[in-house]
Design brief:
- It is a single chain.
- The protein has about 700 residues and is α+β, with helices and mostly antiparallel strands.
- Helices cover about 30% and strands about 20% of the residues.
- The protein contains 13 helices and 34 strands.
- The strands form eight sheets. It has a seven-stranded antiparallel β-sheet, with no helix packed on it.
- The longest helix is centred in the middle third of the chain and has 70 residues.
- The radius of gyration is 41 Å and the shape is flat.
- The chain starts with about 20 loop residues before the first strand and ends in a 15-residue tail after the last strand.
- The C terminus is likely disordered.
Length: about 700
């Protein structure tokens, strides 16, 4: 048997760091106090209202709010729900133990199971820790007597007299179950939190939680694998018992490891002092270099000051000599008193030169020295950056590399990286990024800490280039920065829509996936029947499909992928007033007569093409991108054919009446033309033969799923 006092560590709530009180089981299988969950969710709401990343309430658990949690709180606050002081509105928060985002769903805290087993163990621990503290009767008049038993049905404690009064013989209450004095009252039957009148009788192996038969029939566990509660009880108990027996059998090995760890603790204490001395010595050398540089700079400034003061003082004395009866002027006045011409000429010639120089100096006055010391300003910007990056470098940590294939920028930026070597991976990574701006002289990096190897970044400016770099940290040791990767954001905000399965959708030729994010044109039997009815020399019709959401104003961007095997795909936009014409256009049938680049009477055909097309489309197919033949386009047909990018984008600017077609991987415009945006504009696609188009999925903060490791 394990001593109850030896398991205190397992009975501490990770949020409040105290013994569990009414512990709840989170979806990640960790436990947390009921009151702590509410405090965390309320702290999230207060933090969001204050615009900060952490709660301002010092008494509540301090947990960093992730980007996905902030997005969820934002949606909840904008939903307009009324605040209830007893029930938090937020339902998403990071688990204090594993840091995963926990989504409580619509039922919130009420959808969590209470861990009665853990609660019972905590109660036994409390009783062992405070054996001298008695549990008092709940029904005695003051002063209350010490209780002798507790009723599990009444959830109350009684002394002998009160128990007889409230549980008289011959009544239903006399049949209640009673135990020794306790404060832990648990229900006899565990009820389903989603269906409060149903008892749990099954165990969901996918979600790892008990469920009732209604959850399995029509609830969220309808398609999950479940087993009976007795089978789950037997299986889990056998596994747990075997694991415990294995650990107990390895007791000698555990003790040996503990002894080894004790030695490592002592060795760590010795080595940490040595590391401190080495670090202090390194910084002292830096201090010495800085002191020498400081002394040299101060000496240079002092020398320059003395030279300047000497020059200015000399200039002051010279100008004082220009005053009457003083200096040069006084001397000249005395010379003028000389009456002997030969003696006067001998002295006056040299004196006249000096007087002329003084007069010239007076007319063009200029100080003999500058008073500013701009040449002596020490530029320490680069050194400050280097000192800011000063850390413990280690050869054991590999330099992470940003994976450009897995990283992408769409509505948000998803940056992924990996460590190519087999060395120990870092405990945490620091991702830095900044906007490339030629006008800014200094670069300001924005920093974010990441526990994994990918990060979603929001709030990037449209039509801008950003540089990204990452480094790893293991304790105080860090790796060098990775190579900087430049990525460009879309030219406009991302426009979200799905394929419309109602308006003009041809289900015989086109097939949508259940999420309506992919459409495929299959050259099957219906297509053969359609071709059999056409005249000789004609091809088949284009099958059109549009987006389910229109654009009225502003500038918007969306991206998609065209399968490499696609024979013919057209993409672009269509106004709402021409949608019917699009789906019922008699000239949809393409043949050598109507083909724009067929070589037959090209001028008249271009005019016919421009006037007959109800929408603005470009042609894709056979791994090529075809620039339409316009007066501004190159005359050589070969120069109008480009390789098909892996991801294409369309930017519609309703205010300017422009639509652009982009290589979405590099955010480079391939072709732009004018478009009439007087009506509601819809994304339009046309497919013929074997072809498929997949809409680019938005980057979301929640890109990891829980692993089923039961």
């Amino acid at each position: 048997k394990v001593a109850i006092k030896g398991i205190e560590r397992e009975l501490i709530c990770p949020a409040c760091k105290e013994l569990f009180t009414h512990p709840l089981i989170l979806p990640c299988q960790h436990n947390i106090c009921h009151k702590c969950v509410k405090e965390i969710l309320f702290a999230f709401e207060d933090s969001f209202a204050d615009g900060g990343s952490e709660s301002s309430n010092q008494s509540s658990p301090r947990i960093r709010i992730s980007a996905s949690s902030m997005d969820r709180i934002d949606r909840i606050n904008r939903s307009g729900r009324k605040r209830n002081s007893l029930t938090p509105r937020s339902t998403l928060f990071p688990c204090p133990s594993c840091r995963r985002d926990i989504d409580l769903g619509e039922r919130g805290i009420n959808g969590l199971f209470r861990n009665f087993t853990l609660e019972t163990i905590v109660e036994r621990y409390r009783q062992a820790a405070r054996a001298a503290i008695a549990i008092m009767c709940d029904f005695c008049k003051p002063p209350p007597q010490e209780s002798t038993k507790s009723c599990m049905d009444c959830s109350a404690s009684y002394c002998n007299e009160c128990f007889k009064i409230h549980h008289p013989w011959g009544t239903v209450k006399a049949q209640h179950e009673y135990v020794g004095p306790t404060t832990n009252f648990r229900p006899k039957i565990l009820m389903c939190p989603e269906h409060e009148m149903e008892r749990v009788n099954m165990y969901c192996e996918i979600c790892r939680r008990p469920v009732c038969h209604l959850c399995k029939l029509g609830g969220g566990h309808a398609n999950h694998r479940v087993t009976t509660m007795s089978t789950a009880y037997k299986t889990l108990k056998e596994k747990l018992s075997k694991d415990i027996e294995y650990l107990i059998s390895k007791e000698s090995q555990v003790k040996a490891h503990i002894t080894q760890l004790d030695l490592l603790l002592k060795e760590t204490e010795v080595r940490v002092e040595r590391a401190k001395q080495e670090a202090s010595h390194s910084f002292e050398k830096l201090y010495h270099v800085l002191e020498e540089k400081k002394s040299a700079a101060l000496r240079a400034i002092e020398t320059s000051k003395n030279i300047r003061l000497e020059k200015l003082q000399t200039q002051v004395e010279e100008y004082q000599g220009l005053l009457e009866n003083n200096g040069l002027v006084g001397y000249a006045q005395e010379v003028l008193k000389e009456t002997d011409p030969s003696c006067f000429v001998q002295t006056a010639k040299q004196l006249h030169v000096r007087i002329q120089k003084a007069t010239e100096s007076l007319r063009s006055f200029r100080p003999a020295a500058e008073t500013t010391f701009e040449d002596f300003v020490v530029d320490t910007a680069k050194q400050e950056d280097i000192l800011g990056d000063l850390s413990f470098h280690s050869n054991g940590l590999e330099i992470p590399e940003i994976n450009e294939e897995q990283s992408r920028v769409y509505n948000k930026a998803l940056i992924s990286w990996e460590c190519p070597g087999k060395a120990d991976s870092a405990d945490i990574y620091v991702l830095e990024y900044h906007k490339l701006n030629k006008e800014e002289e200094t670069v300001t990096w924005q920093k974010t800490e990441v526990c994994g190897k990918s990060k979603v970044i929001s709030d990037l400016d449209d039509d801008s280039s950003y540089a990204f770099r990452v480094r790893g940290y293991k304790g105080s040791i860090c790796s060098p920065w990775s190579r900087e990767v430049i990525m460009r954001t879309p030219p406009a905000p991302v426009f979200s829509f799905l394929f419309d399965d109602k308006c003009g959708y041809n289900s015989e030729h086109l097939q949508l996936n259940p999420r309506r994010t992919s459409v495929e044109s299959r050259a099957g039997f219906p297509l053969l029947l359609g071709s059999e009815r056409l005249q000789v020399g004609c091809y088949t019709t284009l099958d059109y499909i549009i987006g389910d959401t229109g654009i009225a104003k502003g500038k918007h961007f969306w991206a998609f992928n065209v399968e490499a095997y696609s024979y013919l795909v057209k993409v672009g936009v269509v106004p709402s007033n021409k949608i019917q014409k699009l789906f019922h256009n008699t000239h949809d049938v393409t043949s050598p007569r109507y083909e724009q680049d067929s070589g037959h009477d090209s001028g008249s055909e271009d005019a016919f093409f421009d006037s007959s097309q109800p929408c603005t489309l470009v042609t894709l197919g056979m791994k090529k991108f075809f620039i339409p033949a316009t007066p501004a386009a190159p005359k050589d047909p070969a120069s109008r054919i480009l390789p098909l990018p892996s991801c294409l984008g369309i930017c519609l600017d309703c205010d300017r009446g422009k639509v652009g077609f982009y290589d979405a991987g590099r955010m480079k415009c391939l072709y732009e033309c004018e478009v009439d945006c007087s009506g509601l504009m819809y994304p339009a696609f046309a497919l013929m033969g074997g072809a498929a188009v997949h809409l680019e999925e938005a980057v979301t903060a929640k890109y990891r799923e829980y692993h089923d490791d039961i």
